[in-house]
Design a protein that fits this description.
The complex is a heterodimer. Chain A is built from no helices and eleven strands. Chain A is an all-beta fold. The radius of gyration of chain A is 13 Å and the shape is globular. Chain A starts with a strand and ends with a strand. Chain B is an all-beta fold. Chain B is built from no helices and eleven strands. In chain B, the strands form two sheets. In chain B, strands 2, 4, 5, 9, 10 and 11 form a six-stranded mixed sheet that branches. Chain B has a five-stranded antiparallel sheet with strand order 1-3-8-7-6, with no helix packed on it. In chain B, a hairpin with an 8-residue loop joins strand 9 (about 85-90) and strand 10 (about 100). Chain B is globular and about 45 Å long. Chain B starts with a strand and ends with a strand. Classes of the chains: A mainly beta, B mainly beta. Chains A and B meet through strand 4, strand 5, strand 9 and strand 10 of A and strand 5, strand 9 and strand 10 of B.
């Protein structure tokens, strides 16, 4: 199993550009999550999904959108990128009856 | 007041020392208390978790939860240079979607 994979690893965006961060898991987990981690800080939940077609906002959803059309994929869309969105983005997944979340390697995003 | 507070350190100790890492929290509904380890430029990985109060031991690691004080701890015995990482505490209520709330993380260095 590859676990949770994220692409791209790194990206530099200009202010106002848009992009999609990709996340795929091959563990058949029904729950998936997007977090961001600012330098020297913990992770904050952006959006989460409890199954295909079901998504909900986390603590810091503004400026982001998500969709979940399959169990495996949970892309995160940034519209009109702003410098405040410079961060490391982690995708995670879990079973509904297991508190352990498995994290991907992260995407480092810089907005200038 | 943040829901979860963690001293960011950095903490530097000699090899073989006992390390104590701590978090406090304010939400009495938290039931799952997790410790994640994050190596530089990697995703977090679950070290161990405790449900409700009490202690849990796994090799050189011991997690303690005191719900009356809203205080959790992670002890590392016989610390090794390979333990050098950022340690993040995280908590969830366990109700519905498993939304983790993270502390800031403590950067730990074990010196040979």
């Amino acid at each position: 199993n590859a676990g949770v994979t994220q692409t791209p690893k790194f990206r530099i965006l200009k202010i106002g550009q848009s992009m999609t961060l990709q996340c795929t898991q091959d563990m058949n987990h029904n729950y998936m999550y997007w977090y961001r981690q600012d330098p020297g800080m913990g992770l904050k939940l952006i959006y989460y999904s409890v199954g295909a077609g079901i998504t909900d906002k986390g603590e810091v959803p503004n400026g982001y959108n998500v969709s979940r059309s399959t169990t495996e994929d949970f892309p995160l869309r940034l519209e009109l990128a702003a410098p405040s969105q410079t961060s490391v983005y982690f995708c995670a997944s879990s079973y509904s009856n297991d508190p352990e979340q498995y994290f991907g390697p992260g995407t480092r995003l810089t907005v200038t | 007041q943040k829901e979860v507070e963690q001293d960011p350190g950095p903490l530097s100790v000699p090899e073989g020392a006992i390390v104590s890492l701590n978090c406090t929290y304010s939400n009495s509904a938290f039931q799952y208390f997790m410790w994640y380890r994050q190596y530089s430029r990697k995703g977090p990985e679950l070290l161990m978790y405790t449900y409700s109060s009490g202690n849990k031991e796994d090799g050189r690691f011991t997690a303690q939860v005191d719900k009356s004080s809203k205080y959790i701890s992670l002890f590392i015995r016989d610390s090794q240079p390979s333990d050098s990482a950022t340690y993040l505490c995280a908590m969830m209520t366990g109700q519905g979607a498993q939304k983790l709330v993270f502390g800031q993380g403590t950067r730990l260095t074990i010196n040979p």
